[in-house]
Design a protein that fits this description.
By secondary structure, the protein is mostly helical. The protein has three domains: 51 residues, CD2-Gal4, CATH 4.10.240; 161 residues, no CATH class; 127 residues, no CATH class. Helix content is 54%, strand content 0%. GO terms for molecular function: DNA-binding transcription activator activity, RNA polymerase II-specific; zinc ion binding.
Length: 437
């Protein structure tokens, strides 16, 4: 007499019959799929294993262990390569780093996957064989929680924009996954700066999501649709900030990444900002009625002044005079420097009004948007005149240290500029150099 709740079957696969377990007769059956063995219901030529030591069961496989057990959790100065970190986060080991595999875990007979199915009434509703998946989604939930409780807070002092980033942006991200990836990237990199002990892990997750955001938004830039404009604007805004953050983190880990100079890094970001600036120009007309509308309007209340803006303006006449009077300067080079210096005026103008928020960011972003290719080429070549002009720009990074994603940029960029200037330009670099401690 068959057991209650257990339908007797004579059509089960040969593998289940050999192991004396109930077969659900799926093709392949759940037991064979779970144990990763051929099933006679789909492959009539397959034979059950006759290995007596394992009772016909195959031991479950385990993901490949990382080469270095104690990499994650160390301070950023000893981190391994980003590719290793990404692989570690997305494919973590089945045991904690530094621990050996226990005897019971290595034994096929004691593994849950190797035991007879005690709950066939559940197994028939599985859509695919059992696989080992990384719990990366748990980390993503942590990052989304961090976004809505802490990370968003560093984007604006205005209540309307804080609400837009904390509440509205995640809503839009549900249907625009490139924005979702960028929110998670920003959140992960914020946690890097909060907790350097776990920095490599969060950094790996952050640049993974940043990569996904870049791939996603790149597909949308060929033709900006009105329905996607707000999500594209939000993503491009955050992307510039996370690139500053990730590049800054990499600069502190020379063993983990390439050794770009600070000048090369900032020029790459200038290129990004100019490209994104073109996108923002296109998207601007579509977002006036979106959740980002407050971003395009000045706040209602006055914002505290930034004294450095006025100080830069006071220093420009002397710099202009120096460049104009330098006799050994090629005419085209002189013109390029004077044009770049002239770009400080509109950047100062957009950052100085009484109701202008994020004054430092306004200056840093606006100046780079209007730089011409000739000046960028001279800067890439690290010509002294270009480094002097860039040094004046770099002073604003020292005033922007409250933005976690810009920390360290002022000191790193200014030192590179000062070290690359020849003696004939030394008088012009004295004021920017005074910001170094």
């Amino acid at each position: 007499m068959p057991r209650l709740g257990h339908k007797k079957s004579r059509l089960g696969c040969r593998q289940c019959k050999a192991r004396h377990v109930k077969c659900d007769e799926l093709k392949p059956c759940s037991n064979c799929a779970r144990h990763k063995v051929p099933c006679s219901l789909t492959n009539p030529d397959s034979q059950p294993s006759t290995d007596g030591s394992s009772g016909g069961r195959s031991a479950p496989t385990r993901p490949k262990q990382p080469a270095t057990d104690d990499t994650v959790g160390k301070k950023s100065s000893t981190t391994s390569s980003p590719s290793f970190q990404i692989d570690y986060v997305l494919n973590p080991p089945t045991v904690s780093p530094g621990q050996g595999t226990s005897t019971s875990a290595a034994s096929g007979d004691s593994s849950p996957a190797s035991q007879p199915d005690q709950f066939p009434f559940l197994s028939r509703f599985l859509h695919r064989p059992e696989v080992i998946e990384a719990d990366i989604w748990v980390l993503d939930l942590e990052l989304m929680h961090h976004w809505s409780t802490e990370a968003y807070d560093g984007l604006s002092m205005r209540d309307d924009m804080r609400h837009a980033w904390r509440v509205e942006a995640p809503k839009h991200a549900v249907t625009h996954t490139f924005l979702m990836h960028e929110l998670l990237a920003f959140s992960a990199l914020h946690k890097v700066y909060q907790n350097l002990d776990q920095g490599p892990c969060y950094y790996a997750c952050g640049i993974h999501h940043q990569d996904m955001a870049i791939r996603g938004i790149r597909e949308k830039l060929h033709s900006v649709r009105p329905s996607e404009a707000a999500a594209i604007l939000a993503t491009s805004t955050l992307l510039t900030l996370t690139v500053f953050a990730s590049t800054g983190f990499e600069a502190g880990c020379p063993l983990a990444v390439g050794s770009n100079s600070a000048v090369d890094d900032i020029l790459n970001i200038f290129n990004l900002m100019q490209g994104m600036g073109n996108v923002l120009t296109i998207a601007h007309q579509f977002v006036m009625d979106s959740f980002l509308a407050p971003m395009l309007c000045d706040p209602q209340e006055d914002i505290p002044a930034q004294p450095l803006l006025q100080e830069i303006e006071q220093q420009l006449p002397a710099l202009i005079t120096f460049v104009e009077d330098k006799r050994d300067l090629d005419a085209s080079e002189r013109t390029a420097y004077l044009e770049a210096i002239a770009n400080f005026r509109p950047a100062l103008a957009i950052a100085s009004p009484l109701k202008a928020d994020n004054r430092e960011l306004r200056f840093l972003f606006n100046w780079s948007l209007h730089l011409k290719p000739t000046f960028l080429t001279y800067t890439r070549q690290q010509r002294s005149g270009a480094l002097v002009v860039l040094g004046y720009y770099a002073t604003m990074f020292f005033a922007a240290e409250q933005y976690w994603y810009l920390r360290g940029w002022g000191d790193r960029l200014m030192r590179t500029c000062c070290n690359g200037v020849d003696e004939s330009w030394a008088p012009a670099i004295q004021w920017p150099m005074s910001f170094l401690k």
